[in-house]
């Protein structure tokens, strides 16, 4: 089986790494990829992953048996539709189904119809409406850009002025809308569910760390690290979430005539009133994918092909490693603001000496002299596994310490509280 993967981040590097390890996969082509992916797969230039015609031409040239769409932007732009119309099997939802991520308001509408437990929310189109809504809900204030925002469209704050300022910035965009939600307490869980439009197969839950600084200080980012499994999660949590959230949502999308084929990413808060959905995404999450796929023993290529072709009934339970996995994101100077790029990256070869540790490239490039340099905000995802979270953490951070990147930063507390048994559900 030949697989074409669209994307260029650490999430795609993790997907490609798992596909290459699948004995049923003969070749992997990635567009546009990155220097790390280029070491294990064929990378093809692609100026714009949302350009359906360009992606289709690339697919026609390589004739893959499966196309996997990594990022959200091409899904919302309808690239999966163009490929399916061109006769290709695609792992990734249609533009209509991807609205579960493309519009927070649409996702809330589907949740309501499917009776999925979630927080109360108001859709607002003016700052006055936002002010009225946040005053009704009270602090902490939760303000979400209705559209795509690369994981940085959400502000949670006790500062009313900050909340209104963020809402104003979102509303200033063409067609800008914001969703104001009640604050949901409790630890967060990320669950990926593979769907063929009818059946769903869950992956192992993970937890990510959105804030830039230790102890969840500072602004939201695309994600600074993650770990899996969750030793503190209630027994049977995944089954409950499939029954109460994933299957009803997939059933509702099919009832609407827009079946969801791909991975439904469910972001949840384990509140004192039970699990509540914070958001849906229409693709694998980054950085959770890095730790979930590190533990998946079931071959990935066959699983994604089965989802793309309506054959998930061939899968019941997936096989998982008993090991824990931790990933730590190494970020550029000034991320999540305007990151500095072009700085040389060194030390990656030394990481091979750390047991189980490896590096997934996110924002990297080769300069004119062939030197590996930073090319984005989140530069690398450093992954390690271990017998438990403590050992996985120890190895991941030993590897991070070997990375040379001037003025880079990372969180030092990824999975720390969980490894100490300090995370719980009230």
UniProtKB/TrEMBL annotation:
It is an enzyme of class 6 (ligase). Pfam families: GARS_A, GARS_C, GARS_N. GO terms for molecular function: ATP binding; metal ion binding; phosphoribosylamine-glycine ligase activity. Pathway: Purine metabolism; IMP biosynthesis via de novo pathway; N(1)-(5-phospho-D-ribosyl)glycinamide from 5-phospho-alpha-D-ribose 1-diphosphate: step 2/2. Its cofactor is Mn(2+); Mg(2+). Gene3D superfamilies: 3.40.50.20, ATP-grasp fold, A domain, ATP-grasp fold, B domain, Phosphoribosylglycinamide synthetase, C-terminal domain. It comes from the Bacteria. Its EC number is 6.3.4.13. InterPro entries: ATP-grasp (IPR011761), ATP_grasp_subdomain_1 (IPR013815), PreATP-grasp_dom_sf (IPR016185), PRibGlycinamid_synth_ATP-grasp (IPR020561), PRibGlycinamide_synth (IPR000115), PRibGlycinamide_synth_C-dom (IPR020560), PRibGlycinamide_synth_C_sf (IPR037123), PRibGlycinamide_synth_CS (IPR020559). Residues 108-309 form the ATP-grasp domain. The keyword ATP-binding applies. It catalyses: 5-phospho-beta-D-ribosylamine + glycine + ATP = N(1)-(5-phospho-beta-D-ribosyl)glycinamide + ADP + phosphate + H(+). GO terms for biological process: 'de novo' IMP biosynthetic process; purine nucleobase biosynthetic process. Keywords: ATP-binding, Ligase, Nucleotide-binding, Purine biosynthesis. Belongs to the GARS family. This is Phosphoribosylamine--glycine ligase. It comes from Knoellia flava. The gene is purD.
């Amino acid at each position: 089986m030949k697989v074409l993967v669209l994307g260029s981040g650490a999430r795609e590097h993790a997907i490609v790494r798992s596909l290459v390890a699948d004995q049923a996969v003969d070749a992997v082509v990635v567009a546009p990829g990155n220097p790390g992916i280029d070491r294990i797969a064929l990378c093809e230039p692609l100026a714009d992953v949302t350009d359906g015609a360009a992606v289709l031409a690339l697919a026609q040239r390589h004739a893959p048996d499966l196309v996997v769409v990594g990022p959200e932007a091409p899904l919302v732009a309808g690239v999966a539709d163009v490929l399916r119309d061109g006769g290709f099997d695609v792992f990734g939802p249609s533009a209509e189904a991807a609205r579960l991520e493309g519009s927070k308001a649409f996702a809330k509408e589907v949740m309501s119809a499917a009776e999925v437990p979630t927080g109360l929310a108001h859709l607002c189109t003016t700052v006055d409406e936002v002010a009225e809504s946040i005053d009704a809900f009270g602090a902490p204030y939760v303000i979400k850009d209705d559209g795509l925002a690369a994981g940085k469209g959400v502000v949670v704050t006790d500062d009313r002025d900050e909340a209104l300022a963020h809402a104003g910035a979102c509303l200033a965009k063409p067609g800008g809308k914001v969703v104001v939600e009640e604050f949901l307490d409790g630890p967060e869980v990320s669950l990926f569910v593979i769907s063929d439009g009818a059946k769903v197969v869950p992956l192992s839950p993970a937890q990510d760390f959105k804030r830039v600084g230790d102890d969840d200080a500072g602004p939201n980012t695309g994600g600074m690290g993650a770990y899996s499994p969750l030793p503190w999660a209630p027994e049977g949590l995944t089954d409950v979430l499939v029954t109460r959230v994933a299957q009803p949502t997939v059933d509702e999308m099919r009832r609407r005539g827009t079946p969801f084929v791909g991975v439904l990413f469910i972001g949840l808060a384990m509140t004192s009133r039970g699990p509540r959905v914070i958001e849906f995404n229409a693709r694998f999450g980054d950085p959770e994918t890095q730790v979930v796929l590190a533990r998946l023993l079931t071959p990935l290529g066959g699983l994604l092909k089965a989802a793309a072709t309506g054959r998930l009934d061939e899968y019941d339970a997936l096989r998982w490693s008993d090991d824990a996995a931790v990933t730590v994101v190494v970020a550029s100077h000034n991320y999540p603001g305007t990151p500095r790029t072009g700085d040389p990256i060194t030390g990656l070869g030394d990481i091979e000496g750390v047991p189980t540790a490896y590096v997934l490239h996110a924002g990297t490039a080769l300069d004119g002299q062939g030197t590996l340099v930073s090319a984005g905000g989140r530069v690398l995802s450093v992954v390690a596994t271990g017998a438990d979270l403590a050992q996985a953490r120890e190895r991941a951070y030993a590897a991070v310490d070997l990375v040379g990147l001037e003025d880079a930063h990372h969180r030092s507390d990824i999975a720390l509280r969980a490894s100490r048994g300090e995370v719980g559900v009230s």
